[in-house]
From TrEMBL:
Coiled coil: none
Pfam family, one: Glyco_hydro_3
Family from the record: Belongs to the glycosyl hydrolase 3 family.
Stored PANTHER family: BETA-GLUCOSIDASE
Gene Ontology molecular functions: beta-glucosidase activity
Residue ranges constituting the Fibronectin type III-like domain according to the UniProt record: 586-676
Name of the protein this chain belongs to: Beta-glucosidase
The entry's keywords: Carbohydrate metabolism, Glycosidase, Hydrolase
Amino acid sequence: MELEELSVAEKAAMLSGGSEWDSRGNDRAGVPSFVMSDGPHGVRRQLGEGDHLGLGASKPATCFPTAGTVAGSWDPALAEQMGEALGREAHDLDVNVLLGPGLNIKRNPLCGRNFEYYSEDPIVAGRMAAGLIRGIQSNGVSACPKHFAVNSQELRRQASNSVIDERTMREIYLTGFEIAVREAAPMTIMTSYNEINGVYAHENKHLLQDILRDEWGFDGMVVSDWGGSNSAVAAVKAGGSLEMPSPGFTSVRELEDAVKAGALDEADLDARAREVAKIAGRTRLDGVGRDDLLDESVIKAHHEIARRAAEGSMVLLKNETALPFRPGARVAVVGDMAKTPRFQGSGSSKVNATREENILDELGKLASENAASANTAAPVVAGYAPGYDRQGAVKPELVREAVDLVSRDDVDVALAVVGLDERSESEGLDRATMAIPQAQNDLIAALAATGKPVVVVLVAGSPVELPWHDDVAAILYIGLSGQAGASATVRALTGKVNPSGHLAETWPMRYDDCPSAGWYPATGRDAVYREGPFVGYRYYETAGVPVRFPFGYGLSYATFTMTGLVADETGVTVTVSNDSDVAGATVVQLYVSGPSCGAAGAHAGADGAHGAAGVLRPARELKGFAKVTFAAHETRDVRIDFDRYTFRHFDAAARDGAGAWRTESGVWTLSVGFDAETLPLSMPFAVAGDVDATGPDPALGHYLTGDVTHVTDAETAALFGYDVIARSGRDGATTFGVNDPISSWSGSRGFIAKTVANTLKKREASVREKTGAPDLNTLFILNMPPRAMSKMTQGMVDAAMVDAIVEIGNGHTFRGLGSLIGAYFRNQSANKRTAKEINHD
């Protein structure tokens, strides 16, 4: 039977999940159900129906480095190798759609989910994601890039409205997705929880139809984040294909009623059903059993791939000749994380790793292996001390023990493994500070005071403040490096691997230096992106704000130089030399400065005047890169081609307000180097565009110099084209709706509602304090608006019941309870009728 011949109810049923992880198929149309599973750096195939936050047991799978770490490799080919392994495991574990990668822009370093995202720059994010997607889909499994789009904070993540100007959205927050779609053709894409300029992402026609499908050519399935669908009817109209996890038959009835009433065109329903059926057909996993586990040979091979990914991604941040360890060096290992590793974040991406390593044991193994072979070149472990309490408690005795160890005569160097704990980086919870626990800072200071060189291995999925930077001899940033990260780290420390990673995000000196620090995270409904395009290095380089480490930064045991920059109509070529006695790899980076930044790419003057007449731009923007490996003393040319993204900007006023991509004619500046600040070669380059360069609006004021921390409301209105601040919502509401989070009920007039919200908040804080890890389910409930209940309860709750629950939240306790009970029984009867209709009973 053809899909179009099915009843409206049958087609509608295909557009929502049948369980936590499974779609609904249709036997009459020959459409099988398919399985979706997290995650972006390891398959989390849960046993039974489980939960979507990673608390339930899952089948063992390889835990690869997180996206925030792999981005440090600047190597899409490495990401593709990792993706091939991910896709193979998804296939073997009977997963049709793997939910990843995450490529939201890192707007602020405190976002709790930044470890799952690649970069603050869309070119890096898009190219790395494209590599992973190609690898995953080479196995016949669908990748699912997420969260589309403009999703930058965890606080109120299901009840937040991202307010952003069109140009910034297109150039910064959507370009990474565009690259992934155009270059890797993902079969599926996941929408974000939030609204974008007042419209939920899963029912945003501008996003899903105008941009994703019509402009980029996406022809796959759009799935909601779990519980992220608001209106099933609005989603189908706008281009949302599948809502997950399982609203039961509530959405089926809503869609059926809308078609009958003429409020929904059945052709739209057919289009969405075809998109779901297409995924079911393209990802068939015939012959694979759901109880299968990974073969031991696969586990071993993929552990090695995870190690290579970690080796290629770690970033050497500082090195005063302390690394690699000299032959026979006697090393005191300090730090709880050296023995009890932290190699991934918390939340839906958490993987049940097939193996686990720690740095202390890996150093010991290396020493034992070399002792057996009479090799005296390897370092020797002189001793171990935990150094600090894992949960951040101040324990001076642990510091004294570590200092005593390092002070011994038989110790040459201290290796301190420190970083963020499990509570700091998690889905559902933003970081409160950019600092690591003070107990660890105190430890580093005490170790440095011994006079022995201190080498720091830094474990964190995002930037941290480094008050002891000047006092230590070396810093190796390993990020969240996956299950093989410990052996990879030891190989880098001992010189078996030459670190080649470069930072994919800027590390500010302190959090207050961040452009969005004054308004992040938004505590109310509206998150206004008032910094505009000045995100990450685009801000620091334009406004001239000093940073700890610039975007693109990374050291090596080798040294590299660049000469001979040449440009033609299609790209640039530069000669790169490895001037050292060791092989190594580096990242060649191309930055472009528009005509508005002047012929030399200088900052705008103090009065806000630009060196030439062009649209508002950051001082420079990354437009291409190449990861290149060199033998000792090798010299060769490196080519970086121009593409559709190199010189364009989005003109929101073009085509009668529909907007269009434009290229300004004029003299641009091309700069090539090793990071956003270290650009030894620059040259002017004439661009023949499709529009003449026109000066920015003087009303933009502080935006003209990138000084977004001082922008006024009037200047923000000039950027957005309307008074965005006046239109934005304010806190303090006392009447709640279906889209206000449960956490807001703490201000309710009703005793029950207030008690529920406050009890949940206290429970989450208590669990986090006792266990050292966030209570993800409680956080999810607190961030959840009541309307999500009808999307996540397999039909137990419908829209009428949600309305009754909201009445309770607004203090009408008894009336709400009465309505809830009545609606419950009506919903049960309606579910039985719909089930009979769909199953033809």
